[in-house]
Amino acid sequence: MSDFPIIDTDPGVTRQVLADHPDLMLVSFKFNKGAEGKLHNHPHVQSTFVKTGRFRFSVDGTETNVGPGDSFVIPSQAVHGCVCLEAGELVDCFTPRRDDFL
């Protein structure tokens, strides 16, 4: 169990850091149906694992639908975001750590 707080990030979206180290961070994002992870980019390499739910992701303009068990890597600086099609949870790894999440 994480000692980090659960943070409301956007309407229908929460974030909780699960583990961190200067070189790596593991984060859970929970989404209600219809909630959005707004388009953004960052210098970190991100890997995303769909624990539950269904999502439509956009990565540098390419849209892909993903569901439980799917995973993918988002390169550094790629513009990305998602729409939650079915309530669920994403588990993301970032390297290096996202200090803005602490």
CATH superfamily: Jelly Rolls
Range of helix content: under 10%
Number of domain modules: 1
Structural class: mainly beta
CATH class: Mainly Beta
CATH architecture: Sandwich
Q: Please, what is the average pLDDT?
A: 97
Beta-strand residue fraction:
over 45%
> Which residue ranges are poorly predicted, with pLDDT under 50 across at least 5 consecutive positions?
none
Number of strands: 8
Termini separation comes to 17 Å
- Secondary-structure element pattern, one letter each: EEEEEEEE
Overall geometry comes to globular
CATH topology: Jelly Rolls
Write down the Rg. Answer: 13 Å
Provide a count of the helices: 0
Task: Report the major sheet.
Answer: 8 strands, antiparallel
Brief description of this entry?
With 102 residues, this protein is an all-beta fold. The protein has a single domain, classed as Jelly Rolls, CATH 2.60.120.10. The protein has no helices and eight strands.
Walk me through this protein's architecture.
- The protein starts with 6 loop residues before the first strand and ends in a 7-residue tail after the last strand.
- The chain has one domain: Jelly Rolls (Sandwich), CATH 2.60.120.
- It has no helices and 8 strands.
- The chain is globular, with a radius of gyration of 13 Å.
- It has 102 residues and is mainly β.
- Strands 1, 2, 3, 4, 5, 6, 7 and 8 form an 8-stranded antiparallel sheet that branches.
Question: What topology emerges from the helices and strands here?
Answer:
Layout: E1 7-10, E2 13-21, E3 24-31, E4 36-40, E5 45-59, E6 62-66, E7 71-74, E8 80-95
Antiparallel strand pairs: 1-2, 2-3, 3-8, 4-8, 5-6, 5-7, 5-8
